[in-house]
Amino acid sequence: DAGVIQSPRHEVTEMGQEVTLRCKPISGHDYLFWYRQTMMRGLELLIYFNNNVPIDDSGMPEDRFSAKMPNASFSTLKIQPSEPRDSAVYFCASSRGPLAEQYFGPGTRLTVT
Amino acid sequence: QQPVQSPQAVILREGEDAVINCSSSKALYSVHWYRQKHGEAPVFLMILLKGGEQKGHEKISASFNEKKQQSSLYLTASQLSYSGTYFCGTLLRAVYSGGGADGLTFGKGTHLIIQP
């Protein structure tokens, strides 16, 4: 299997622009997680899906953030409008269940200037 | 409720042992350990579910004391490849057993540096 695929790997954008991050989970995994990692806050869970349905979005920092999972093989995390404080590495992970190993994608390094 | 990890950082010589602790103020259902190397994604090490449970793989093992709401990761005879940041992720018993959200909350990590 190819593992979890994320794109783009790096994104540099200006404040106020819309940013869309993409994730393809491992086939057969029914859980998908979006995390944000910064030096100050560590690894934070933003939102996760079970069978394409959002289960908990309490980690989404504000309304500028939204996530969708239109089918079992694709998810997006959108930031609109982006701000410098959104600069971080965003990871997508998938698993076969809440108590199963999570496989992380390589991450998207987002820089908002 | 973010778990607390200690120490924040540790520097060892190759061959020395290390212990990394993870504690919570709330009752835990499970503890998950991951390792992340610089510039890479976190990689799964192990999950502990039951009180007093211990697991191990070669020279890395862990214990989970649910009464004390804490877990410890043991690295024996450390190798250079063990360097990285270790994270524990926790699932609260009240949340999981009550049918609530089952996403992990990760600690801030323990930075482990192994020197030759």
Task: Write structural notes for this entry.
The complex is a heterodimer of chains A (113) and B (116). Chain A contains no helices and eleven strands. Chain A has strands spanning 5-7, 10-13, 19-24, 31-38, 42-50, 53-56, 65-71, 74-79, 88-95, 103-104, 108-112. In chain A, the strands form two sheets. In chain A, strands 2, 4, 5, 6, 9, 10 and 11 form a seven-stranded mixed β-sheet that branches. Chain A has a four-stranded antiparallel β-sheet with strand order 1-3-8-7, with no helix packed on it. In chain A, strand 9 (88-95) and strand 10 form a beta hairpin. The radius of gyration of chain A is 13 Å and the shape is globular. In chain B, strands 2, 4, 5, 9, 10 and 11 form a six-stranded mixed β-sheet that branches. Chain B contains one helix and eleven strands; from the N terminus they run E-E-E-E-E-E-E-E-E-H-E-E. Helix content of chain B is 4%, strand content 54%. Classes of the chains: A mainly beta (113), B mainly beta (116). At the A-B interface, strand 5 and strand 10 of A face strand 4, strand 5 and strand 10 of B.
Keywords, please?
heterodimer; A: 113 residues; mainly beta; seven-stranded mixed sheet; four-stranded antiparallel sheet; globular; B: 116 residues; six-stranded mixed sheet
Total helix count of chain A? 0
Radius of gyration of chain A: 13 Å
Averaged pLDDT of chain B, please? 88
Question: SS-based structural class of chain B?
Answer: mainly beta
Q: Could you spell the SSE succession of chain A in H and E letters?
A: EEEEEEEEEEE
Report the β-strand fraction of chain A as a percent range: over 45%
Number of strands of chain B: 11
Portion in strands of chain B: over 45%
Would you summarize the structure shown here?
The complex is a heterodimer of chains A (113) and B (116). Chain A is an all-beta fold and 113 residues long.
